[in-house]
Amino acid sequence: MKLLSLFFGLLFSLSAFAQKQTPLPHGTVYGTKPDTGAMLDAAKLEAFMGKKTRISTTVKGRVLNVTKQKGGWFTIDAGNGKVIAAHFKIYNITIPAALKGKCIVAEGIAEKQFIADDLQHFAGDTTSGKKQHAVKTNPKRRLTFEVKGLMVE
């Protein structure tokens, strides 16, 4: 009998002290509320930008990972193995790690980041016939997004 009561006491105490993650409710806003009038899918962002290097837009996508909670650093799935690195314009915004895997709507400024080979080409510094050193860049992180406001879908 003592063993049974000890077991239930232990079970109750573990469940009472366990951390419970509350799900993020639909419509939770971080920063300013994004304008959903002209929303664009994250997979179509790079094609929509065309030759422009910087545009202001609203993007809908899925959060792959929250890399840093303070400052709101996270990554958005851009389809076909591409990733958009996003962060908040205002540093004092903190986002929860539970945002991972959630669909979001984010308003802000999208910018193309050129890798070293592109910059050499634009500068005219390319050498033909010579072996160039490999540049350690991540081709999946060619787009960045500076977020003004984010809403959980």
Describe the structure.
By secondary structure, the chain is α+β, with helices and mostly antiparallel strands. 19% of the residues lie in helices and 34% in strands. The chain is built from three helices and seven strands; from the N terminus they run αββαββββαβ. It is globular. 20% of the residues are buried.
Summarize the structure.
With 153 residues, this protein is of the alpha+beta class. 19% of the residues lie in helices and 34% in strands. The protein has a single domain, classed as OB fold (Dihydrolipoamide Acetyltransferase, E2P), CATH 2.40.50.200.
Provide the domain count: 1
Shape by Cα distribution: globular
Radius of gyration: 22 Å
Strand tally is: 7
Helix content: 10-25%
Number of helices: 3
- Strand-pairing-aware structural class: alpha+beta
Could you state the order of secondary-structure elements as H and E? HEEHEEEEHE
User: Major sheet, described briefly?
Assistant: 5 strands, mixed, barrel
> Could you name the ranges where pLDDT drops below 50 across 5 or more consecutive residues?
16-20, 134-141
Please identify which CATH superfamily we are dealing with.
Bacterial OB-fold
Beta-strand proportion:
25-35%
CATH uppermost class: Mainly Beta
- The CATH topology annotation reads as OB fold (Dihydrolipoamide Acetyltransferase, E2P)
End-to-end separation = 50 Å
Which architecture per CATH? Beta Barrel
How are the strands of the largest sheet arranged? 3-4-5-7-6
Please state the average pLDDT score: 79
